[in-house]
Amino acid sequence: MTIVAAILITAATFVAVTFPFFRHRRAPAPPNRSSLQELHLRRDHTYALLKELESDYQSGTLSKEEYKKLEAQYKSKAVTILQEIDGLPEERPPAKDIQDDIEKRIQKIRQKKRLVATGHQDEIEKAVGAIRQKNGRFCHQCGAEQTPDSRFCPECGARLTVRRKP
Amino acid sequence: MADIGYVALLLGLIAAAYAAAAFAFGAWKMQPTLLESARNSLLAVCGLITVAVGIMLYALLTHQFQIEYVAQYSSTDMPLVYLITSLWAGSEGSLLFWAWLLSVFAAIVVLTPRTIGKELVPAAASVIMLTQGFLLILLLSASNPFTTLTYTPLEGNSINPLLENIGMVLHPPIHFISYAAFTIPFAFAIAALIKGKLGDEWLIAIRRWALFAWLVLGVSLIIGAWWAYVELDWGGYWGWDPVENAGLMPWLVITAFLHSVKMQRRRGMFKVWNLLLIVLAFSLTVFGTFINRTGIGQHSFPESPETILISNLVLSFLAIVLVATIVLVFFRRHQLRSETEMDSLISRESTFLLNNLLLLGATLVIFVGTMLPTISERLMGSAISVGPAFFNSVNAPLFLATILLAGVCTVIGWRKASNSNLIRSFLRPLIAAAVLGVLLFALGMREVPALVAFPLLLFVLFTIFAEWFRGTQSRSRIKNENYLIAFPRLIWSNKPRYGGYIVHLGILILAMGVAGSSVYDSEATANIAQGESLTVSGYDIQFNGLTFSSAPDREWIVTADVTIYKDGKEVGNLTPQKWLEPTYGVVTESSIRSTLLDDVWVTLQSWDETDNAAATLRVLVNPLVLWIWIGGVVVLLGGLIALWPERRALAAG
Question: The complex's ipTM?
Answer without folding.
Answer: 0.72
